[in-house]
Amino acid sequence: MDDRPLELVWSALFSVAHPSLVASKDLQGDKIFLPQSALEQLLAASTTTGPSTSHTFTAFDPFNPYSVADARRERSQYRETYQQLPHPLMFQLVNRKNGNAVFAGIREFSASEGEVALSPYLMEALGIQERDIKAVTEAPPAEDGVVDLSRDEEDKPEDSGVRITVKARQLPKGTYVRLRPLEAGYNPDDWKSLLERQLRASYTTLTKDSILSVRGVKGEEFRFLVDKFEPEGSGICVVDTDLEVDIEALNEEQARETLRQIAAKSQLAPGTESGSSVGRTIDIWKDVQGQVLGGDYVDYDLPSWDKSSAITIELTVFDDQEVDLFVSPKSNRQRAVPRDSEHVFGDFSSPADGVKRIVIQPTNVELEGAESLLVSVHGFTIPGNASDASLPRRYTLRARAVDVEGSAAAPISLENSPPRNSDEEQFCPGKLILCQFCHLEVPQEGDPLDPASEAETVISGLTAHERADGARTTDCHLCGAIIRLRDMAAHAANHELDKVSRPKPQVCRDELCGRTLHGIGPRGQVNGGTRMGQGPGNDLGLCSLCFSPLYVSMHDPEGKALRRRIERRYLTQLMKGCGNKACLNEWCKTGRANRGLEALGSSAAAALPLVKPLLEAIQDHGQKMHFCVDETSQRRKKTAEMLAAEGVWELEWCIAALEAEVGDLAKARGWLTDWAPAKVGR
After folding, report:
1. In angstroms, rounded to a whole number, what is the distance separating the alpha carbons of residues 420 and 472?
2. Where is the region Disordered (predicted)?
3. What is the CATH number of the domain that holds 241?
4. What's this model's pTM, rounded to 2 decimal places?
């Protein structure tokens, strides 16, 4: 298939849909809605004929020249068709009345037949007023209610409505754009992030001499004239490209006015003598002195306090100034700093003594999962009173723990709860949360007018964003199953329930051995060795390694030969020893020497009476056996006993964990957490 850019030739005439018909879909930027028939026409126009990529015959003889010639001729005559639309799909819109033109991108093919829905940006660029569309859609009724059925659609006047021509038009990817602000004083903190977010979310193209509106983080609007492009032309594509942006003043007078406003703001910047104080971290031990200008906020963070006691946030205002106090616990469900329109606790009152208090009880549900308390001091101003906004308001902020029973040190009434903000905040789509799946601060999204969405949020405990983000899948680290992220907590709870009913693994009967009887398989599988055909191979209760020195390939139905081999091994240990420098076996000459104990049974006559009770207890699996083992097995057994002494897990599970993780203590703890049930009562 050809990799060259697709040139699509298509155009059509559409009536402009009334903005109220698409208001609920929040059409922004340069996006349009076209009808479904437009997509079908575009696909038909993009149909391309190309050479076949497959053979129409099964086989031919390469040594037969006639067969080869026939195959080549058949392939040259066979061609296939395919449909491919360019990406991104771009259009040029032309207003037939005034000749205005603008480029646009497609959002959906869901408009009514014969209509195109335009965003406010496109309406302004094309010079279309909403009242013009009303005049068309609300045509006056016929006189006397008589309808002329003999009149065809083609007989209607051409200017019976706002109609525009939509043409498919591919634009080059832009590398440079110059923007000129339409007003002086534009000075946001970060132009780059604002433009990136706006262009990525709402724009496919930019048109020369159009007006670009950018929304600021505080809700303000910045308007720019799109002045210059590279590559030069009437428009560029801004999708999948690195775009360099220059912002230059419209003229010298505007540049001077912008500098003057920036200099004036810098004199009132936070931290200056005439500006608001700079927010910081506070504690319950020290009062905070500060000042705030009208309309400004000073934000504080209280990271720690006694969560078992009530806490009061007290604000003392001087000179009878109007200052508001807001508090919001910072948690996964509340990330935004307190503001007059978004907060959990607030005090807008004007107390006679100038003291405002917000008391939060330790049992308040809003404190659940709170990392810290966010406190904001707001300078209230009357709209339009510029002189009042420039006056700093001095205050003292303090946080104190309050004795619930009441005390002389904190004589504060706890009867009245602090005022709570509107419940609409809880379901506001723009409320910031910390998503538990992507771990980013994002809007919680959702439709506050949809009862089903609110009910699902309450029942599941997940916001609309978390429900969508939690639909991604991942592998369970325990069983390997593919699980949705939002279902992982329930899946992990099932594993916890399974652990409770798991039987303890059987361990080797040897007193010094640190192995299980049947081995440990992958993913915490108990008896894994036996299931794979690698069981102990005996009924003495010894693991395969401890039993291997006793094994002989002979018929011994009564076990007499096995009894003699066990007796011989005990006698050898007592009289000669195993020779292992790390041996700690009390029933071994070497082990007793290593432990500083006196030797037992140096001769056969002395050792036989000692061994006889051990032989009689062979069939009693409750009695330990005393064979020498390797140093690794001894070390694992000692480590397992240390783990079991912590009182969290049984000794059998500790032995299994160290066997599964080859003696690694840290990994063994992880294995126990994943697969072993904790002791009852913990």
Report:
1. 36
2. 139-161
3. 3.10.330.10
4. 0.51
